[in-house]
Amino acid sequence: MMALILRDIRIGVRAGGGMLIGILFFLAVITVVPFGVGPDLKLLARIGPAILWIGALLASLLGLDRLFQADREDGSLDLLIMAGHEHPLALTVFAKCVAHWLTTGLPLVIVSPALGLLMNMEPAAIAATTATLLAGTPAITFIGATGAAIAVALPRGGLLVSVMVLPFVIPVLIFGVMAAYGAVEDPAPFLQPFLLMCALTLFFAALGPLAAGAALKGSSD
Amino acid sequence: MKLVVDDLAADRGSGLIFENIGFSLGDGEGLVVTGPNGAGKSTLIRAMAGLLRPAHGTARIEDETGEWTDLAAASHYLGPINAMKPALTVRENLAFWQAFAGKPAMAIDEVQQTVGLEHTADLPFSYLSTGQRRRIAIAKLLLNWRPVWLLDEPTSGLDAASERHFAGLVRDHMKAGGIVVAATHLPIAVDGMKRLTFGEALPA
Fold first, then answer.
1. Which of A197-201, B12-16, B33-37, B148-152 has the lowest mean pLDDT?
2. pTM for the complete prediction?
3. CA of A193: how far to CAs of A27, A172, A188, A200, in Å?
4. Which chain B residue has the Cα nearest residue A82?
5. CA-based nearest distance A122→chain B, Å
6. pLDDT, tens digit, for every residue of A6-55?
7. How far is B199 from chain A (nearest CA, A)?
8. Which residue range(s) make up the domain with A79?
Protein backbone atom coordinates (compact mmCIF):
# COMPACT_ATOMS: atom_id res chain seq x y z
CA MET A 1 0.00 0.00 0.00
CA MET A 2 2.85 2.34 0.89
CA ALA A 3 4.30 1.65 -2.56
CA LEU A 4 1.07 2.79 -4.21
CA ILE A 5 0.92 5.99 -2.15
CA LEU A 6 4.54 6.79 -2.94
CA ARG A 7 4.04 6.11 -6.63
CA ASP A 8 1.01 8.37 -6.87
CA ILE A 9 2.73 11.14 -4.92
CA ARG A 10 5.71 10.92 -7.28
CA ILE A 11 3.44 11.17 -10.31
CA GLY A 12 1.50 13.99 -8.68
CA VAL A 13 4.49 16.22 -8.01
CA ARG A 14 6.14 15.60 -11.38
CA ALA A 15 5.26 17.51 -14.51
CA GLY A 16 1.67 17.10 -15.58
CA GLY A 17 0.58 16.01 -12.13
CA GLY A 18 -1.94 18.80 -11.80
CA MET A 19 -0.74 20.00 -8.39
CA LEU A 20 0.16 23.47 -9.64
CA ILE A 21 -3.02 23.71 -11.71
CA GLY A 22 -5.13 23.35 -8.58
CA ILE A 23 -3.16 26.00 -6.69
CA LEU A 24 -3.29 28.40 -9.66
CA PHE A 25 -7.02 27.90 -10.02
CA PHE A 26 -7.51 28.52 -6.30
CA LEU A 27 -5.41 31.68 -6.58
CA ALA A 28 -7.38 32.83 -9.63
CA VAL A 29 -10.74 32.39 -7.92
CA ILE A 30 -9.64 34.25 -4.78
CA THR A 31 -7.99 37.15 -6.60
CA VAL A 32 -11.00 37.70 -8.84
CA VAL A 33 -13.44 38.08 -5.94
CA PRO A 34 -12.18 41.49 -4.66
CA PHE A 35 -12.47 42.85 -8.19
CA GLY A 36 -16.05 41.67 -8.41
CA VAL A 37 -17.12 42.70 -4.93
CA GLY A 38 -15.32 46.03 -4.89
CA PRO A 39 -12.88 47.53 -2.39
CA ASP A 40 -15.12 47.16 0.65
CA LEU A 41 -12.63 45.74 3.14
CA LYS A 42 -15.25 44.93 5.76
CA LEU A 43 -17.35 43.00 3.29
CA LEU A 44 -14.31 41.09 2.03
CA ALA A 45 -13.36 40.09 5.55
CA ARG A 46 -16.93 39.03 6.18
CA ILE A 47 -17.21 36.77 3.13
CA GLY A 48 -13.55 35.66 3.24
CA PRO A 49 -13.98 32.22 4.87
CA ALA A 50 -16.84 31.32 2.54
CA ILE A 51 -14.93 32.39 -0.57
CA LEU A 52 -11.82 30.50 0.55
CA TRP A 53 -13.91 27.38 1.09
CA ILE A 54 -15.68 27.65 -2.25
CA GLY A 55 -12.38 28.28 -4.02
CA ALA A 56 -10.74 25.28 -2.35
CA LEU A 57 -13.78 23.13 -3.11
CA LEU A 58 -13.75 23.99 -6.81
CA ALA A 59 -9.99 23.61 -7.03
CA SER A 60 -10.08 20.15 -5.47
CA LEU A 61 -12.85 19.06 -7.82
CA LEU A 62 -10.66 20.07 -10.73
CA GLY A 63 -8.33 17.09 -10.89
CA LEU A 64 -10.64 14.46 -9.44
CA ASP A 65 -11.73 12.88 -12.70
CA ARG A 66 -8.13 11.82 -13.38
CA LEU A 67 -7.93 9.87 -10.13
CA PHE A 68 -8.66 6.52 -11.79
CA GLN A 69 -8.84 7.50 -15.45
CA ALA A 70 -5.07 7.77 -15.81
CA ASP A 71 -4.72 4.28 -14.36
CA ARG A 72 -7.38 2.97 -16.69
CA GLU A 73 -5.73 4.45 -19.75
CA ASP A 74 -2.35 2.87 -19.11
CA GLY A 75 -3.76 -0.48 -18.03
CA SER A 76 -2.68 -0.30 -14.37
CA LEU A 77 -6.27 -0.24 -13.19
CA ASP A 78 -6.82 -3.80 -14.41
CA LEU A 79 -3.88 -4.98 -12.37
CA LEU A 80 -4.98 -3.03 -9.29
CA ILE A 81 -8.40 -4.69 -9.56
CA MET A 82 -6.83 -8.12 -10.07
CA ALA A 83 -4.73 -7.68 -6.95
CA GLY A 84 -7.95 -7.46 -4.98
CA HIS A 85 -7.18 -10.76 -3.29
CA GLU A 86 -4.03 -9.37 -1.71
CA HIS A 87 -5.02 -5.72 -1.42
CA PRO A 88 -8.77 -5.23 -1.07
CA LEU A 89 -9.93 -2.76 -3.67
CA ALA A 90 -11.39 -0.38 -1.08
CA LEU A 91 -7.96 -0.18 0.57
CA THR A 92 -6.30 0.48 -2.78
CA VAL A 93 -8.78 3.28 -3.42
CA PHE A 94 -8.12 4.64 0.07
CA ALA A 95 -4.37 4.70 -0.62
CA LYS A 96 -4.94 6.48 -3.91
CA CYS A 97 -7.17 9.02 -2.16
CA VAL A 98 -4.51 9.68 0.47
CA ALA A 99 -1.89 10.27 -2.22
CA HIS A 100 -4.30 12.43 -4.21
CA TRP A 101 -5.14 14.57 -1.19
CA LEU A 102 -1.46 14.94 -0.24
CA THR A 103 -0.62 16.22 -3.72
CA THR A 104 -3.71 18.31 -4.49
CA GLY A 105 -5.63 18.99 -1.28
CA LEU A 106 -2.79 19.69 1.15
CA PRO A 107 -1.13 22.32 -1.09
CA LEU A 108 -4.46 24.19 -1.18
CA VAL A 109 -4.59 24.16 2.61
CA ILE A 110 -1.01 25.41 2.78
CA VAL A 111 -1.59 28.37 0.46
CA SER A 112 -4.95 29.31 1.95
CA PRO A 113 -3.49 31.57 4.74
CA ALA A 114 -1.73 33.65 2.08
CA LEU A 115 -4.94 33.91 0.09
CA GLY A 116 -6.80 34.82 3.29
CA LEU A 117 -4.66 37.96 3.44
CA LEU A 118 -5.99 38.93 0.03
CA MET A 119 -9.49 38.78 1.51
CA ASN A 120 -8.51 41.08 4.41
CA MET A 121 -9.29 38.37 6.95
CA GLU A 122 -8.15 38.73 10.55
CA PRO A 123 -5.61 36.20 11.86
CA ALA A 124 -8.15 34.26 13.91
CA ALA A 125 -10.39 33.81 10.86
CA ILE A 126 -7.45 32.75 8.73
CA ALA A 127 -6.35 30.19 11.30
CA ALA A 128 -9.87 28.83 11.69
CA THR A 129 -10.44 28.59 7.94
CA THR A 130 -7.13 26.82 7.43
CA ALA A 131 -7.96 24.37 10.19
CA THR A 132 -11.38 23.62 8.73
CA LEU A 133 -9.89 23.19 5.26
CA LEU A 134 -7.29 20.81 6.66
CA ALA A 135 -9.95 18.64 8.25
CA GLY A 136 -12.59 19.09 5.54
CA THR A 137 -10.85 18.75 2.18
CA PRO A 138 -10.09 15.02 2.64
CA ALA A 139 -13.84 14.46 2.64
CA ILE A 140 -14.03 16.06 -0.82
CA THR A 141 -11.40 13.63 -2.08
CA PHE A 142 -13.14 10.59 -0.60
CA ILE A 143 -16.55 11.58 -1.98
CA GLY A 144 -14.94 12.53 -5.26
CA ALA A 145 -13.30 9.12 -5.53
CA THR A 146 -16.74 7.56 -5.78
CA GLY A 147 -17.74 9.96 -8.53
CA ALA A 148 -14.45 9.42 -10.33
CA ALA A 149 -14.89 5.64 -10.14
CA ILE A 150 -18.41 5.83 -11.57
CA ALA A 151 -17.29 8.06 -14.43
CA VAL A 152 -14.01 6.26 -15.06
CA ALA A 153 -15.12 4.75 -18.35
CA LEU A 154 -16.40 8.03 -19.76
CA PRO A 155 -13.99 9.90 -21.99
CA ARG A 156 -15.08 13.34 -20.76
CA GLY A 157 -16.21 12.59 -17.27
CA GLY A 158 -14.68 15.67 -15.66
CA LEU A 159 -17.72 17.89 -15.45
CA LEU A 160 -19.96 14.94 -14.70
CA VAL A 161 -17.81 14.03 -11.71
CA SER A 162 -18.06 17.58 -10.36
CA VAL A 163 -21.83 17.70 -10.80
CA MET A 164 -22.27 14.28 -9.19
CA VAL A 165 -20.01 15.08 -6.27
CA LEU A 166 -21.20 18.60 -5.44
CA PRO A 167 -24.47 17.71 -3.66
CA PHE A 168 -22.59 15.37 -1.35
CA VAL A 169 -19.91 17.88 -0.38
CA ILE A 170 -22.41 20.62 0.46
CA PRO A 171 -22.76 19.45 4.11
CA VAL A 172 -18.97 19.58 4.44
CA LEU A 173 -18.98 23.09 3.00
CA ILE A 174 -21.76 24.24 5.34
CA PHE A 175 -20.11 22.97 8.51
CA GLY A 176 -16.67 24.11 7.39
CA VAL A 177 -17.77 27.69 6.78
CA MET A 178 -19.93 27.66 9.91
CA ALA A 179 -16.96 26.65 12.05
CA ALA A 180 -14.75 29.29 10.43
CA TYR A 181 -17.31 32.00 11.27
CA GLY A 182 -17.73 30.56 14.73
CA ALA A 183 -14.12 31.37 15.47
CA VAL A 184 -14.56 35.11 14.90
CA GLU A 185 -18.22 35.91 15.58
CA ASP A 186 -18.95 35.74 19.23
CA PRO A 187 -22.20 33.91 19.84
CA ALA A 188 -21.58 31.38 17.08
CA PRO A 189 -19.83 28.17 18.17
CA PHE A 190 -16.62 26.87 16.57
CA LEU A 191 -16.20 23.45 18.08
CA GLN A 192 -19.56 21.86 17.32
CA PRO A 193 -19.64 22.48 13.55
CA PHE A 194 -15.93 21.66 13.37
CA LEU A 195 -16.45 18.30 15.03
CA LEU A 196 -19.46 17.57 12.84
CA MET A 197 -17.32 18.27 9.79
CA CYS A 198 -14.59 15.95 11.11
CA ALA A 199 -17.26 13.30 11.56
CA LEU A 200 -18.33 13.77 7.95
CA THR A 201 -14.74 13.35 6.82
CA LEU A 202 -14.37 10.13 8.78
CA PHE A 203 -17.72 8.87 7.53
CA PHE A 204 -16.80 9.45 3.90
CA ALA A 205 -13.29 8.07 4.45
CA ALA A 206 -14.96 4.76 5.26
CA LEU A 207 -17.84 4.87 2.79
CA GLY A 208 -16.20 6.54 -0.23
CA PRO A 209 -13.48 3.93 -0.89
CA LEU A 210 -15.97 1.07 -0.47
CA ALA A 211 -18.36 2.60 -2.99
CA ALA A 212 -15.56 3.53 -5.36
CA GLY A 213 -14.13 0.01 -5.16
CA ALA A 214 -17.48 -1.50 -6.07
CA ALA A 215 -17.88 0.94 -8.96
CA LEU A 216 -14.39 0.16 -10.28
CA LYS A 217 -15.06 -3.55 -10.12
CA GLY A 218 -18.11 -3.04 -12.30
CA SER A 219 -16.27 -0.76 -14.70
CA SER A 220 -13.78 -3.42 -15.80
CA ASP A 221 -16.52 -5.44 -17.52
CA MET B 1 -1.81 -27.37 -9.83
CA LYS B 2 -4.45 -27.18 -12.48
CA LEU B 3 -6.08 -24.35 -14.35
CA VAL B 4 -9.63 -25.36 -15.18
CA VAL B 5 -11.94 -23.47 -17.48
CA ASP B 6 -15.38 -24.96 -17.44
CA ASP B 7 -18.20 -24.20 -19.88
CA LEU B 8 -17.22 -20.54 -20.03
CA ALA B 9 -19.37 -17.99 -21.86
CA ALA B 10 -18.91 -14.24 -22.04
CA ASP B 11 -21.26 -11.44 -22.91
CA ARG B 12 -20.21 -7.86 -23.51
CA GLY B 13 -23.71 -6.47 -23.70
CA SER B 14 -24.34 -7.26 -27.35
CA GLY B 15 -24.98 -10.97 -27.21
CA LEU B 16 -22.65 -13.83 -26.39
CA ILE B 17 -19.09 -13.44 -27.64
CA PHE B 18 -18.33 -17.12 -27.08
CA GLU B 19 -19.78 -20.03 -25.16
CA ASN B 20 -18.94 -23.61 -24.16
CA ILE B 21 -15.23 -22.94 -23.77
CA GLY B 22 -13.69 -25.63 -21.60
CA PHE B 23 -10.12 -26.80 -21.08
CA SER B 24 -7.77 -27.72 -18.32
CA LEU B 25 -4.04 -27.11 -18.11
CA GLY B 26 -1.66 -28.77 -15.68
CA ASP B 27 1.80 -27.79 -14.45
CA GLY B 28 4.09 -26.82 -17.29
CA GLU B 29 1.40 -26.71 -19.93
CA GLY B 30 0.56 -23.88 -22.26
CA LEU B 31 -2.28 -22.84 -24.50
CA VAL B 32 -2.21 -20.57 -27.52
CA VAL B 33 -5.52 -18.96 -28.39
CA THR B 34 -5.72 -17.86 -31.99
CA GLY B 35 -8.43 -16.51 -34.21
CA PRO B 36 -9.36 -13.48 -36.29
CA ASN B 37 -9.90 -10.00 -34.87
CA GLY B 38 -13.06 -9.71 -32.84
CA ALA B 39 -13.36 -13.43 -32.25
CA GLY B 40 -13.15 -13.06 -28.48
CA LYS B 41 -9.53 -13.90 -27.64
CA SER B 42 -9.00 -10.88 -25.40
CA THR B 43 -12.42 -11.35 -23.85
CA LEU B 44 -11.46 -14.90 -22.90
CA ILE B 45 -8.24 -13.71 -21.27
CA ARG B 46 -10.06 -10.93 -19.40
CA ALA B 47 -12.74 -13.34 -18.22
CA MET B 48 -10.05 -15.68 -16.93
CA ALA B 49 -8.30 -12.82 -15.15
CA GLY B 50 -11.52 -12.01 -13.36
CA LEU B 51 -11.84 -8.63 -15.03
CA LEU B 52 -15.02 -9.60 -16.82
CA ARG B 53 -17.84 -11.44 -15.15
CA PRO B 54 -18.54 -14.52 -17.26
CA ALA B 55 -22.11 -14.93 -18.44
CA HIS B 56 -21.82 -18.61 -17.67
CA GLY B 57 -19.28 -21.11 -16.35
CA THR B 58 -16.13 -20.65 -14.31
CA ALA B 59 -12.38 -20.29 -14.63
CA ARG B 60 -10.60 -21.45 -11.51
CA ILE B 61 -7.37 -22.81 -10.16
CA GLU B 62 -7.11 -26.14 -8.36
CA ASP B 63 -4.06 -26.29 -6.17
CA GLU B 64 -3.38 -29.22 -3.87
CA THR B 65 -0.96 -27.24 -1.71
CA GLY B 66 -3.60 -24.60 -1.03
CA GLU B 67 -1.16 -21.79 -1.77
CA TRP B 68 -3.26 -20.40 -4.62
CA THR B 69 -7.00 -20.31 -4.21
CA ASP B 70 -8.00 -17.61 -6.63
CA LEU B 71 -7.12 -17.56 -10.33
CA ALA B 72 -6.77 -13.77 -10.47
CA ALA B 73 -4.39 -13.82 -7.51
CA ALA B 74 -2.34 -16.62 -9.07
CA SER B 75 -2.03 -14.87 -12.43
CA HIS B 76 0.06 -12.31 -14.16
CA TYR B 77 -2.08 -10.48 -16.70
CA LEU B 78 -0.18 -8.86 -19.55
CA GLY B 79 -2.81 -6.79 -21.29
CA PRO B 80 -2.68 -4.89 -24.55
CA ILE B 81 -1.48 -1.78 -22.66
CA ASN B 82 1.70 -1.92 -20.63
CA ALA B 83 0.46 -0.71 -17.23
CA MET B 84 3.46 1.58 -16.74
CA LYS B 85 3.43 5.23 -15.78
CA PRO B 86 5.02 7.41 -18.46
CA ALA B 87 6.17 10.03 -15.94
CA LEU B 88 8.14 7.56 -13.80
CA THR B 89 11.46 5.98 -14.67
CA VAL B 90 11.62 2.35 -15.73
CA ARG B 91 13.15 1.39 -12.39
CA GLU B 92 10.46 3.24 -10.41
CA ASN B 93 7.74 1.53 -12.43
CA LEU B 94 9.19 -1.91 -11.92
CA ALA B 95 9.94 -1.26 -8.25
CA PHE B 96 6.34 -0.23 -7.68
CA TRP B 97 4.88 -3.36 -9.23
CA GLN B 98 7.32 -5.57 -7.38
CA ALA B 99 6.45 -4.00 -4.05
CA PHE B 100 2.72 -3.92 -4.74
CA ALA B 101 2.26 -7.43 -6.07
CA GLY B 102 4.13 -9.33 -3.35
CA LYS B 103 6.06 -12.62 -3.65
CA PRO B 104 9.11 -11.01 -5.29
CA ALA B 105 11.10 -13.42 -7.45
CA MET B 106 13.90 -11.60 -9.28
CA ALA B 107 15.76 -8.36 -8.62
CA ILE B 108 14.89 -5.39 -10.80
CA ASP B 109 18.38 -5.13 -12.33
CA GLU B 110 18.23 -8.81 -13.13
CA VAL B 111 14.90 -8.66 -15.00
CA GLN B 112 16.08 -5.64 -16.95
CA GLN B 113 19.13 -7.60 -17.97
CA THR B 114 16.93 -10.50 -19.00
CA VAL B 115 15.08 -8.34 -21.51
CA GLY B 116 18.31 -6.54 -22.45
CA LEU B 117 17.27 -3.07 -21.31
CA GLU B 118 19.43 -2.45 -18.23
CA HIS B 119 20.68 0.84 -19.73
CA THR B 120 17.15 2.34 -19.68
CA ALA B 121 16.67 2.01 -15.91
CA ASP B 122 16.81 5.71 -15.16
CA LEU B 123 14.92 6.94 -18.22
CA PRO B 124 11.27 7.95 -17.94
CA PHE B 125 9.11 5.19 -19.36
CA SER B 126 7.71 7.61 -21.97
CA TYR B 127 11.18 7.95 -23.58
CA LEU B 128 11.20 4.30 -24.62
CA SER B 129 10.20 3.01 -28.04
CA THR B 130 7.10 0.86 -28.51
CA GLY B 131 9.07 -2.37 -28.57
CA GLN B 132 11.18 -1.40 -25.55
CA ARG B 133 8.04 -0.54 -23.60
CA ARG B 134 6.63 -3.94 -24.39
CA ARG B 135 9.84 -5.60 -23.28
CA ILE B 136 9.68 -3.79 -19.94
CA ALA B 137 6.05 -4.91 -19.56
CA ILE B 138 7.23 -8.46 -20.25
CA ALA B 139 10.01 -8.03 -17.70
CA LYS B 140 7.28 -7.34 -15.15
CA LEU B 141 6.17 -10.98 -15.48
CA LEU B 142 9.47 -12.04 -13.93
CA LEU B 143 9.42 -9.62 -10.98
CA ASN B 144 6.97 -11.63 -8.92
CA TRP B 145 6.28 -15.31 -9.04
CA ARG B 146 2.84 -16.18 -10.36
CA PRO B 147 2.19 -19.71 -11.63
CA VAL B 148 -0.22 -18.58 -14.34
CA TRP B 149 0.60 -16.11 -17.12
CA LEU B 150 -2.40 -14.69 -18.98
CA LEU B 151 -1.02 -12.94 -22.04
CA ASP B 152 -2.99 -10.81 -24.46
CA GLU B 153 -1.05 -10.17 -27.68
CA PRO B 154 2.23 -10.38 -25.76
CA THR B 155 4.47 -9.89 -28.77
CA SER B 156 2.80 -6.86 -30.35
CA GLY B 157 5.46 -4.31 -31.21
CA LEU B 158 8.40 -6.67 -30.72
CA ASP B 159 11.07 -7.29 -33.33
CA ALA B 160 11.99 -10.82 -34.43
CA ALA B 161 14.89 -11.19 -32.00
CA SER B 162 12.80 -10.04 -29.04
CA GLU B 163 10.01 -12.38 -30.12
CA ARG B 164 12.39 -15.32 -30.02
CA HIS B 165 13.69 -14.16 -26.69
CA PHE B 166 10.15 -13.90 -25.37
CA ALA B 167 9.42 -17.44 -26.54
CA GLY B 168 12.44 -18.48 -24.46
CA LEU B 169 10.95 -16.82 -21.39
CA VAL B 170 7.64 -18.61 -21.93
CA ARG B 171 9.50 -21.91 -22.29
CA ASP B 172 11.44 -21.29 -19.08
CA HIS B 173 8.25 -20.46 -17.22
CA MET B 174 6.60 -23.67 -18.39
CA LYS B 175 9.71 -25.65 -17.51
CA ALA B 176 9.52 -24.20 -13.99
CA GLY B 177 6.01 -25.62 -13.70
CA GLY B 178 4.12 -22.53 -14.77
CA ILE B 179 0.99 -22.34 -16.89
CA VAL B 180 0.74 -20.02 -19.87
CA VAL B 181 -2.35 -18.92 -21.77
CA ALA B 182 -1.54 -16.58 -24.67
CA ALA B 183 -3.98 -14.94 -27.04
CA THR B 184 -2.17 -13.96 -30.19
CA HIS B 185 -2.43 -13.91 -33.94
CA LEU B 186 1.33 -14.29 -34.31
CA PRO B 187 2.66 -17.79 -33.69
CA ILE B 188 4.80 -18.20 -30.56
CA ALA B 189 7.76 -20.47 -31.18
CA VAL B 190 7.22 -22.74 -28.20
CA ASP B 191 6.82 -26.48 -28.74
CA GLY B 192 4.19 -28.47 -26.96
CA MET B 193 1.65 -25.72 -26.45
CA LYS B 194 -1.95 -26.67 -26.94
CA ARG B 195 -4.03 -24.69 -29.37
CA LEU B 196 -7.49 -23.22 -29.18
CA THR B 197 -8.74 -21.63 -32.37
CA PHE B 198 -11.63 -19.21 -32.43
CA GLY B 199 -13.66 -19.06 -35.62
CA GLU B 200 -15.02 -16.12 -37.52
CA ALA B 201 -17.53 -14.01 -35.63
CA LEU B 202 -21.00 -15.16 -36.59
CA PRO B 203 -23.48 -12.51 -37.64
CA ALA B 204 -25.93 -11.93 -34.80
1. B12-16
2. 0.91
3. 26, 10, 10, 10
4. B72
5. 42
6. 999 988 888 666 788 889 999 999 999 999 988 888 999 999 999 999 99
7. 23
8. 2-219
